Amino acid sequence: MNITLETPAVSKWAYTTILICFLMNMLDGMDVMVISYAAPAIAKGWNVSPQALGVVFSSGLIGMTVGALVLAPFADKIGRKSMMLLSGLLMSLTIFLTSYAANVQILMIFRFINGLGIGCMLASTAAITSEYAPAKTKDFWVSFVLSGYPVGAVLSGLVAAYLIPLQGWQALFQWAGVATLLSLPLIYLFLVESIDFYLKSQPVNALTKVNGLLVKMGKVPLTYLPDKPLQLHKNSVAKVLDKAYRKPTLQLWTALFLAFATLYFLTSWIPKLASAAGLSMELAIYAGTVFNCGAFVGIVTQGYFSSKYGLKKTIGTILILTGILMAIFKLFIGSDVLLLVFGLLGFGVQGGFVGLYAVAARMYPTEFRTTGVGWSIGIGRLGGIIGPAVGGILIGVGLSMGANFLIFAIPTVLAGITTWFLSSDKIS
C-alpha cells in the first residue's frame, strides 16, 4: 500500500504545516533566548554571579533534555499535533510565570518546566515536516522550519532591547508567554497529521482519520490498514539502537553533543561576553541579535546546499570552518567588525547544528521518527547543559573572551569531522 502526499490537492496542507512548524520554532527560539537577553538586568538587579546564571541557563536545557528524551517519544503514539498543543500550552504558562520569579531557585524551576515543552516541540516539528516535505527537498524544508528558532531569537532580542530599559526584564517574559499562548489556536485549527503517521503508527481511529483525509484529496478510501511494521513492537530506545541504526545513531549523538555545547555556550553568554568587552547593555543585546540573524541565513543556506550536495559534506564543512573562526576570534576583539564576526558565528554554528536535526529526521522511519529525533536532541542537549555551565566557570575565573572561544572551537571542529564520516546509508 503506497499513498503519496505530493499532489496539488494536499500542497496547501503541506505548506500550512510547514508555516505553523516554522512559527512554533520561532516561539521556541524566543522562549529559550529571553533568559540570556534578560541575564545582564537580572544579574544587576539581584546581584548574582555568572556561575549562578550559568546554572539557570543549564536548568532550562536540562528540561529540554528530559522533554526530548522522555516526553517527545509519545508523539509517535498520540500524534505530532497533540504533542505540539501540549508543549505549546506548557511553554506559554511557564514563560509567563517566570516574570514572577523572586530568586534564582524559582527561576531555575520555571526554566526547567519551560524546557520540557521546548524539547517536545522541536522534535515534533522536525518529524511532521519531514513527513510532509517532498523527498527531493526534505532537507531544505526541515532546515527551513528549524530556522524559525533564530528568527524568534532575533525578534525577542529587538523587543528586549526596547522593553527591558523601560519596563524591566519581567515584562519581556510576560510578552513571550502571551505570544506563545496565542499560537495554540493555529495548531488546533489548521495543523493536519500526515497520512504516513496514521498508516505506520496506527493510533486510535487511524483508519477513520486516514479516510477523512483521502476523501478530501479525492482518493478512494481504504477498507483496512496495512500491517504495523515489526519495529513498533520493540522498546522505543531499542529501535534507534537496533543493529541497522546503532553506529550512525552514536555518531549523530556525538556530533550533536559537541555542537550543542558550543551553540549554547554562545547563545547563553554572547550578551554577557559582549558587555564585558565594553559594549553597552543595549549593544550587548544586539550582539546576540546579530548572531541569530546570521543563524537564520546560515540555516537556510545550509538547507539549500545540503539538498544539492548532501547533508554530511555540507554540515561537516560548515562546522569545521566555524571552529577555525572561533579559534582566531581574539584577533577581532575591539575591532569594528566584531558584530559581523558574531553574525558569521551564528551562520556557521546554527547552520551546521540545525542540519543535524535534518540528518535525524531523514535517518529514522516514520513509525519512530519523533523518538529518533527526540533522543538525538536529548542526548545532544547534555552538551548544551555542560556548555553554559562551563562557560560560567571560565568567565567567573577571569578567562578572556578570546580564550573562551578558542576552547569551544575544539568541540565545533570535532562535530564537523564526526558528521563528515557519518555511516548511515540513508544520508548522502
Q: Tell me the Rg in angstroms.
A: 21 Å
Classified in CATH, the superfamily is MFS general substrate transporter like domains
Biggest sheet record: none
Number of helices: 17
Which class do the helix and strand fractions yield? mainly alpha
N- and C-termini, Cα separation: 27 Å
Topology-level CATH name: Growth Hormone, Chain: A
Shape: globular
SSE string: HHHHHHHHHHHHHHHHH
How many strands? 0
CATH class: Mainly Alpha
pLDDT under 50 segments (min length 5)?
1-10
How helix-rich are the residues, as a percent range?
over 70%
Q: Tell me the number of structural domains.
A: 1
| pLDDT averaged residue by residue | 82
Q: Strand-residue fraction?
A: under 5%
* CATH architect. name: Up-down Bundle
Describe the protein.
The N terminus is likely disordered. The protein is mostly helical and 428 residues long. The protein is 79% helix and 0% strand. The protein is globular and about 70 Å long. It contains 17 helices and no strands. The chain has a single domain, classed as Growth Hormone, Chain: A (Up-down Bundle), CATH 1.20.1250.20.
